[in-house]
Every structure is written in structure tokens, then in C-alpha cells.
Specification:
By secondary structure, this protein is α+β, with helices and mostly antiparallel strands. It has six helices and six strands, in the order H-H-H-E-E-H-E-E-H-E-E-H. It has helices spanning 2-15, 21-30, 37-46, 70-84, 104-115, 136-149; strands at residues 49-53, 59-63, 85-91, 94-99, 121-124, 128-132. The strands form two sheets. The protein has a four-stranded antiparallel β-sheet. A hairpin with a 2-residue loop joins strand 3 and strand 4. Helix 4 (70-84) runs antiparallel to helix 5 (104-115). The radius of gyration is 16 Å and the shape is elongated.
Length: 150
């Protein structure tokens, strides 16, 4: 049942503008799936679904995946990061990314996809991402690279 539900979620997000978890839950319920908000939230996390701006400028859920075209994917994640972020600073081995409200998870996915070799781990809140590097030199490099995107 979970696999069918998650496949339907991907289809709904691909074919419709789904802007909130409630929209997704209602769409699933209309198709006969009995789901709670927490189930929808877990599915969103497992499927690496993020809220980001689409090509028409609408903020909606999108599936963050790597495809076969590495350059296209890099551009996609650079754009996702640029649309989500306001500023980037660092302190010692921590890089702090300030984002528009509700956009930190999108920025965090993009950060991890673009610069996984520089970060040990990351954590996203509503409007802030914390990325931990192995040292201040990596934090400086990561901050410089991220500032070029915004």
C-alpha cells in the first residue's frame, strides 16, 4: 500500500500544483487513500520532495532527484538554492544559510546535492540551514561558492 501511495504522490506532484501537505492529503483522500498528516509528512521526506519555485515562479512541491544529465541537475539545484536563499555566513566550521520563510528544506537539499564533498552534515529549519564542515577552511570555501549563487 505504501509503494502505491508513494507512486501516486509522485504522480500528483508531477501533474498538479500541490502547495501544501493538506493539498496533498486531500488529493490522496479523493483517490481513496486514507492518510494522516504525519503519513504525508513521512512520505514527503522519504521521497525527497521539497517546496521550491517551479519554472512558472509558483512555489510548490517538487521532487528533488538526480537524473542522467548531470549539468542540467547542477543548474536545477543552483537555481533552487538561489530562489530559496537570502544570505550565507560562516563561523568556524559551521555555515549558516538564511532563507525565505519555508524554503530552508529546499536550500538544504540543493546544498547537499551541490557540495556534499565539503559538508559533514546539514540541518534545515523553516528559514535557516546549518551545514557543518570539517574545518574553517572548508567553511570559507563553501560560503564563497554559495554566495556566488545568490
Amino acid at each position: 500500500m505504501k509503494n502505491k501511495r508513494q507512486e501516486k504522490i509522485k504522480e500528483l506532484i508531477r501533474d498538479n500544483v500541490i502547495a501544501t501537505q493538506e493539498d496533498l492529503q486531500l488529493s490522496l483522500e479523493a483517490l481513496g487513500f486514507k492518510v494522516t498528516q504525519s503519513t504525508v509528512s513521512r512520505d514527503i521526506k522519504e521521497l525527497r520532495i521539497v517546496k521550491a519555485q517551479d519554472k512558472d515562479g509558483i512555489y510548490r512541491y517538487l521532487i528533488a532527484t538526480k537524473g542522467n544529465d548531470a549539468r542540467r541537475d547542477k543548474n536545477h539545484f543552483e537555481e533552487m538554492f538561489a530562489h530559496a536563499c537570502i544570505d550565507v555566513v560562516y563561523s568556524m566550521n559551521t555555515v549558516i544559510v538564511k532563507c525565505y520563510a519555508g524554503m530552508a528544506s529546499s536550500a538544504c537539499v540543493a546544498l547537499e546535492q551541490l557540495y556534499s564533498e565539503l559538508i559533514l552534515g546539514s540541518l534545515a529549519g523553516d528559514d535557516t540551514v546549518f551545514a557543518i564542515t570539517s574545518g574553517e577552511a572548508d567553511s570559507v570555501l563553501l560560503t564563497e561558492n554559495l554566495k556566488k549563487l545568490i
